[in-house]
Amino acid sequence: xxxxxxxxxxxxCLLSTAAVAQEKxxxxxxxxxxxxxxxxxGASVSVQELPGTGVATNEYGFYSLTLPKGNYTLLxxxxxxVTASKSMDLTTTQKLDVGLGQHATxxxxxxxxxxxxxxxxxxxxxxxxxxxxxxxxxMPALLGEVDVxxxxxxxxxxxxxxxxxxxxxxxxxxxxxxxxxxxxxxxxNASHLMGFFSVFNADAxxxxxxxxxxxxxxxxxxxxxxxxxxxxxxxxxxxEVSGGIGTISSRLTVEAPIIKDKSSFILSGRRTYADIFFxxxxxxxxxxxxxxxxxxxxxxxxxxxDKNRLFVSGYFGRDVAATKSFMMDWxxxxxxxRWNHLFNNRLFSNTTFIFSDFDYAMGSxxxxxxxxxxSHIKDYGIKNDYTYFLNPKNQLRxxxxxxxxxxxxxxxxxxxxxxxxxxxLNSTSALEGAVYLSNEHRxxxxxTLDYGLRLSSFTSMGPGKVYLYDDAFETPxxxxxxxxxxxxxxxxxxxxxxxxxxxxxxxxxVKASYNRTLQYLHQVSNxxxxxxxxxxxxxxxxxxxxxxxxxxxxxxxxxxxNMFEGSVxxxxxxxxxxxxxxxxxxxxxxERLETELLxxxxxxxxAEFYLRKQKGLLTGWLSYTLSKTERTVxxxxxxxxxxxxxxxxxxxxxxxxxQFSPGINFGANWTYSTGGAITMPVGRYEYNGKTYPVYSERxxxxxPAYHRLDLSATYEKPHNEFKKYSGRWTLSVYNAYARKNxxxxxxxxxxxxxxxxxxxxxxxxxxxxxxxxxxxx
Length: 777
Hints:
By secondary structure, this protein is mostly beta strands. The protein contains five helices and 51 strands. The two termini are 53 Å apart.
């Protein structure tokens, strides 16, 4: 590691020396929203006199361009905003901050993405999808609750976890193979109400980006995808209050400058109120029950000077479900403190301190069975990231990440008169680290490469114990005990990443990528929906890190003066050390969980088609995915390949939004997918007077096909610039034609003939209307 860091520093010194020798001038600064002061991520800065020369702003709106001395016209472009033009006489190093104003048109014909018009052709990004929160808010929503995660489920290559749930699968990967970051802090359970809503309040979100492949070298730890969510910074120009009153929840957001142009804050909260209606009920079985969730987002930023800026942000959310005899609650807490530092006009650094905690508790209130069960996973981390803008043709990224994990799978404490036994499963800790280096290199005007290398390591540590087993790996014969911070097992590996883009002409390009990823944490779950009982465990003596190699290639093209953008991508993914359960596995409160796990390989491949209209009164997209994912694990299905539960051969989505008039907007989403794979009983036998089922091969049957239509209509009184208050009504209809989509299937004896078994389909939602009122002043 020391050798790698020394090499990086030496390379930077050589590159800096070369740049000075050429006597070039550096121009740098920030691109911001003129009205709010928010930094614009991915804004384009180009040079009119040098076609093909330009750069995009980073995650904090910062850019840097190094050019020969001369007179230039710089164009600052961000889709949905008015392009700014600045004439510059570059003779000395300069700093230029630019504010962009949004387009103002009578019918709000504003493009629906926050990218440059031809970004899908010009940028290096492939297998990457970006959504604007304003767009997400116009889409129909379950019970009126706008949901970032449900929106990305409508994109190609992304599958939902089930009817109405916010879990998702990307390109055949498992739910635990998605890295979800909120302001750089990991979120381990992104679900409210057992998965029906996500923890992300759209009012507090600024940017949403999903990487399905070609994951940048600075990110790692998951095999399948990266969902990078950034919170708003708060308006540093004026105070604003916004919110909404919906069918199941209400929201309120306050943002304002602390010191204008220098410091601001945002505070955003929401809460459901089913428990309030329970309290008003005359039914004694309902009265006194609790069922609600709440969350709070907060962020403060402060500009110390031209070279230093601080950000502090946090998320706190909780679910509570309780009756008179039983209770459970679970929630997330994250906190990040970030320091942006500009060493010079070309070297930008970001240092982040991270805390993340997912915990849950449940218990019985009955005296004879009273108990409290607690579990958690906590992270403490630091990231030190650097961006070096060498010149318009090379942009280097490098850094160091370290995370300390603490795992407590389960601790059960009984009541004073309870028959429940006290239990504490093996708690452990781990240290995960990585260093990385990458370069985005514009080789020619048509060819651009992005190549990098990530070196990761993982050390499982005590306190803890490791069982030693007999040859059958069933009965423990000895136990090894480890003290605090004592090394139990260590893993590591290199993760190369490379992607290429070749522009065929002004409107089309081909792209390709390869990346290797390692995953050291594993989720133990027997449910497709997100539940608080999912337990995270580290790689250990018997559980090796998961590994994946993915290759992808795509063709990208724009049509009709960038009104339409289209793409076709194909991918293939190999996965090793994949975990699955033995038949009839016992995973609930199992101290020797490793004896129930089997390891094998997996593969996933497919093709994704995407057509998007991003201008005009009618906007939206059409996507279709043809895919297959399967796993081969010795000891399961006689060693033959079998599909995973989330394997769906065909899936398609149509998303439309139509601006009917200045104040009326209509939206429609239609989604279709083939049914997920399940294991079914195919027979039964009797033994000693008892009947036992005989099951099919693993996931050998399919649920019925899934399809659903959602509709919405929004009315907003035309804005009057002299009035500070504005309101908007949104009517949503979820499952408009009342399709009874299967949530699950269970089997029971036929009531008329107990020699027969019948399948029973359960479903959750019929036609579900909702009404939401949103306001802002």
